[in-house]
Write a structure and sequence with these properties.
Strand content: 25-35%
Largest sheet: 10 strands, antiparallel
Radius of gyration: 19 Å
Number of domains: 1
Order of helices and strands: EHEEHEEEHEHEEEHEEHHH
Distance between the termini: 22 Å
Helix content: 25-40%
């Protein structure tokens, strides 16, 4: 499962601190500047050393809990930073993901999602064989331009209320929308994350109808018409 949490950069430290309120299996216990859990010798409970470490690693670091590894990506000078929550051991349940969203809701949470890797690739990755090569690129992930999409679980801040499904649509029949505090919504687009493929056409249409959401369908024909790698690369750069 892929879980991303996008935070206002000015509040990223507050968001990380809020993880201290999580249940024990999700609460960070160790820290490191590398992604290997075996290298994470520092303990979050050693407050002085932990705060020194955070201050020293301005661009980001890793935190480790029993069931999740957090990749904290800080982007000083940019509007948004992000936290990737990578499942470990027994993985993450729907309840776990909602707990993560809940923890940072009042700490600059802008947007977040959870999805199978295959659903994420379907919505945000372009692959094409051209000129004897395989061209691959991620697309639609610049929050300064649009939201990446809607997935199995999606959390939206109130500024993006236009992305919610219309009550009378068929989409709403399979979709559960609930409030997360006063300023956010959680959308569960379908019941089981692994069933993404059967629901993909509906979610693709959902994204295509809302300009604030990235939609690969809106640009697919332009990409497919590119005659060479150079032209395709230039086109893709418009929708990073």
């Amino acid at each position: 499962m892929i879980v991303e949490i996008h935070i206002e950069s000015s509040k990223i430290n507050e968001a990380v601190s809020s993880f201290g309120t999580l249940p024990s299996q999700l609460r960070p216990e160790r820290f490191s500047d590398g992604e290997d859990a075996n290298s994470a010798k520092g303990k979050v409970s050693d407050v002085v050393k932990y705060e020194q470490f955070v201050a020293k690693n301005g661009s980001g670091f890793f935190l480790f809990a029993e069931r999740v590894r957090y990749n904290v990506v800080r982007r000083p000078g940019e509007a948004f930073s992000k936290i990737e929550a990578d499942p470990q051991n027994d993985g993450l349940t729907e309840r776990d993901v909602i707990e993560l969203f809940q923890a940072v809701a009042d700490a600059g949470l802008v947007f977040g999602f959870a999805a199978c890797p295959e659903e994420y690739e379907h919505r945000n990755r372009y692959v094409r064989k051209l000129q004897g090569m395989t061209f691959e690129a991620w697309m639609g992930r610049d929050l300064n331009c649009y939201l990446p999409g809607v997935y199995w679980l999606t959390v939206l801040s109130e500024r993006y209320g236009e992305c919610l499904p219309e009550p009378a649509t068929a989409l709403s029949d399979i979709t559960r929308v609930t409030r997360l505090g006063a300023k956010h919504w959680i959308i569960r687009a379908f019941e089981n994350a692994g069933d993404w493929k059967q629901h993909a056409p509906r979610l693709d249409l959902w994204c295509a109808k809302r300009s604030i959401l990235f939609s690969k369908d809106r640009i697919q024909s332009q990409l497919d018409a590119a005659a060479d790698i150079a032209t395709l690369s230039q086109l893709v750069s418009n929708w990073r």
